[in-house]
């Protein structure tokens, strides 16, 4: 692995566990097994630029989990509950440390580090777009797919915070059930829509 990649990966891990402010350049260098000077060689803006790269790379990796977790399930609703259950198990098994670095940094520095907030917003926007395309490919109309993706991301990020604070997987279970129920309603609406369009007009009414 190249030095630049090691630095980015180490930063993503530190952001996930302890956030941006608590992460120093010397700690990052040790975690990446790289000289401190190499950080500034590869990232002219130092810690901030490394963090931006880490958010982009981890964000791109995280959205790939959506098809990875949902593709094995023919039923989208069942797949969503299973995905939340998997996230709960992963967080518990990592000692409640497996937070999303994008959400962690956004909550921490949105008002103090405009560049990182913009990068986090870019990553989240990409999640919404890619997730919307995926869910649309699974049969949801585009507006419903977008709404479902917002609900999924909001519930998941909230579950990370509550689970870490409470040391409990219950937030993931509740969030998974709620999002699954919402998506089930969207699936049902999508299934009913063609029938509604094909229904004949009532007697005495003009076609729309």
Fold and architecture overview:
This protein is mainly α. It is 76% helix and 0% strand. It has helices spanning 3-18, 25-32, 36-42, 47-63, 65-70, 76-93, 101-109, 114-137, 142-166, 170-198. Helix 6 (76-93) packs antiparallel against helix 10 (170-198) and helix 9 (142-166) packs antiparallel against helix 10. The longest helix is centred in the last third of the chain and has 29 residues, at 170-198. The chain starts with a helix and ends in a 10-residue tail after the last helix. Residues 196-208 have low confidence and may be disordered.
Tell me the number of strands: 0
| Coarse structural class | mainly alpha
Q: What is the straight-line distance between the termini?
A: 62 Å
Beta-strand portion reads: under 5%
Helix content: over 70%
Number of helices: 10
Low-confidence segments, given as residue ranges, are 196-208
Give the key terms:
10 helices; mainly alpha; 208 residues
Outline of this structure?
With 208 residues, the chain is mainly α. It contains 10 helices and no strands.
């Amino acid at each position: 692995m190249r030095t630049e990649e090691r630095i980015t990966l180490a930063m993503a891990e530190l952001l996930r566990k302890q956030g941006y402010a608590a992460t120093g350049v010397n700690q990052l260098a040790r975690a990446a097994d790289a000289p401190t000077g190499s950080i500034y060689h590869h990232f002219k803006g130092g810690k901030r630029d490394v963090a931006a790269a880490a958010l982009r790379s981890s964000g791109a990796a995280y959205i790939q989990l959506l098809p990875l977790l949902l593709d094995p399930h023919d039923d989208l609703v069942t797949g969503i509950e299973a995905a939340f259950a998997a996230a709960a198990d992963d967080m518990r098994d990592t000692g409640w440390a497996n937070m999303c670095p994008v959400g962690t940094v956004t909550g921490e520095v949105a008002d103090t580090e405009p560049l990182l907030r913009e990068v986090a917003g870019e990553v989240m926007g990409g999640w919404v777009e890619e997730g919307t395309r995926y869910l649309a490919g699974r049969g949801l109309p585009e507006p419903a797919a977008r709404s479902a993706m917002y609900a999924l991301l909001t519930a998941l990020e909230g579950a990370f915070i509550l689970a870490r604070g409470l040391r409990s997987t219950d937030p993931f279970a509740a969030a998974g059930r709620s999002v699954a129920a919402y998506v089930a309603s969207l699936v049902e609406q999508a299934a009913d829509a063609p029938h509604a369009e094909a229904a004949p007009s009532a007697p005495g009414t003009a076609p729309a």
